[in-house]
Amino acid sequence: MSTTRRARCRAAARIRVPLTTGAMAACLLAVMCMAWRVDAQTIQKSGGAFEVTSQLGRKLYAQPDDDAIIAARKKLATNPRDVSLVLALSQAQAGRRQYREAIATCTKGLGFAPGNADLYIERGHRELGLREFRAAERDLAHAASLDPEKLDAFYHLGLSHYFQGEFNSAAESFRKALALAKNDDSVIDCSNWLYVSLRRAGRGHEAGIILKRVGPDVKNTEPHLLFYLHLLRFYQGSLTEQAVLPRKPADANDTEAELSFDTVSYGVGNWHFYNNRDAKRAAELFHEVVGGNAWNAWGFVGSETELKRMAAPSTPQH
Fold this sequence. Notes:
Strand content: under 5%
Shape: globular
Order of helices and strands: HHHHEEHHHHHHHHHHHHHH
Oligomer: single chain
Radius of gyration: 20 Å
Largest sheet: 2 strands, antiparallel
């Protein structure tokens, strides 16, 4: 295959609609196995590919390939039209913050499986990490229309609205996600975001009802959801700010500790913000979060978004 044709086909793989024309479909099939690969040598040399410039002007980078990506890519090469293998590669890439690569992987999958809701959910999830909120909204809304029983579609759709400041729409999506919750972990996750969406939308009474539904018998099983459960207890008043806030990680490479710090610090800062208690304290917490490295954490994205809003002229919220 010529260099020019290969370049065109790689570009085609990033188109955000399914490839349906004969020429484009033929191009995709001709390079299918090759197209699942990222330029691994380039990533390894740089220590991680450039992914996106944050809303505050900071350049954010991926991490180089690991064994999970290499294994997922090899498996997919043996059966490039297996959607489960496409999703596995995308998730492995996302685990290394290779969000552009993960999005491209999903787009290629949608070329032969345009009606697959899971591929749209996965792509929308990664678009959120790249701060492409409107693109994520489109993908996630489409996923929800394809399969209205997908909790993840409504949950991430809620995030796309939330990060755009569309708090009423965010609450509607999170409420639908909560209605689909099958266990306490999902109840905790959805309740946290539904509560803060309602508070930011000025619907405090409805938010209070959500808190009442998270009784003392609600427990988490997934470790990272303990962060959200602690926040819900903080909102309820059973935990103080001092008790709920974790220490800032001493090790910049401790991803789990930073995830906890970012999640809770954003939640507490946001609480100060929507309660009109202490905007300075809120900004202080947000700044601490965005000084870290876990730029794909929702607490990081939220803190970055709030700081950008604080610096911008006042705009109406929806």
